[in-house]
Amino acid sequence: MGKSNMRKAKLQTIYLMVFLISLGAKLTSCTKAGSGAVVTGPAYSFISTMNLAPYGDSANIYFGGNEYPGGAIPIGSYSNSYFKVASGTYDVDFKTPTTDSLLAEIPSSTFDSLGFYTILTYNDSANGAVKAAKITENFSNITNDSAYFRFFNMSPDVASVDLYINGTKVQSSRAPADNILNTFLNNFQGIPGGYYTIVAKLAGTNTMVGTTLTVSFQSGQVFTIFLEELHGAAGNSFSLAILQFTD
């Protein structure tokens, strides 16, 4: 499907119209529908991926038993655009590229026509098992008057953090992967467009965790800020990162 046709498909969703126009996301990439999919008509769902499990591995993704052909996703990697799958009901498996071992799975669930989703792997505790989740994106409150953000703590070795924007605490005591059970935390929060400095601190302290972000929030667009953990020969490293969907 060409970019122009994909844009037309997106615009059929009335509740997402303002967001999609401002976001300008030209959805690219294709995948084959899994044999386990229940598909009715030429409808598609749109999906982004995040591999944020530092105690995990690179992951190949399977929808209904069929591999998404984009290749393995390394730890710490994420997509900044949506790919499409035929709408339907799928189980989603994350497997290691070398041994084909199952890392994590999302039980069979429905991916709606013109629905938007983020699927991600994570650890909710140090040395814990790799888990996976599906987040249903809610863009119903997005307008061109504000920018919008949400925050994920995806560092299992940090008990909880407070999030500061321009020196003001905007979220408190965010535990690792707390947005998985408390889905309210996956909603986007409005903020005036402009330049901001963002830091995370150990909850209740002035001790900064990870890097400082200086970002420009454009009105009418959405951003996912997340605290990321990576492991290497020198030990654990932590950084604040930001995901903005692009063309």
Oligomer: single chain
User: How many separate structural domains?
Assistant: 1
Q: Which percent band covers the strand fraction?
A: over 45%
Sheet with the most strands: spatial strand order:
4-1-7-8
Give the strand tally. 16
Low-confidence stretches: 1-40
Structural Rg: 18 Å
Overall geometry: globular
Helix-strand pattern? HHEEEEEEEEEEEHEEEEE
Termini Cα gap: 15 Å
Going by helix content, strand content and strand pairing, the class is mainly beta
Quick one: biggest sheet?
4 strands, mixed
What does this structure look like?
The chain is mainly β and 247 residues long. The protein has one domain. The protein has three helices and 16 strands. β2 (60-63) and β3 (66-67) form a beta hairpin. The longest helix has 8 residues, at 3-10. The relative contact order is 0.17.
Write the layout of secondary structure elements.
Elements: H1 3-10, H2 17-23, E1 44-52, E2 60-63, E3 66-67, E4 83-86, E5 88-95, E6 102-111, E7 116-122, E8 131-136, E9 147-154, E10 161-165, E11 168-174, H3 178-181, E12 189-191, E13 194-202, E14 208-217, E15 222-232, E16 235-244
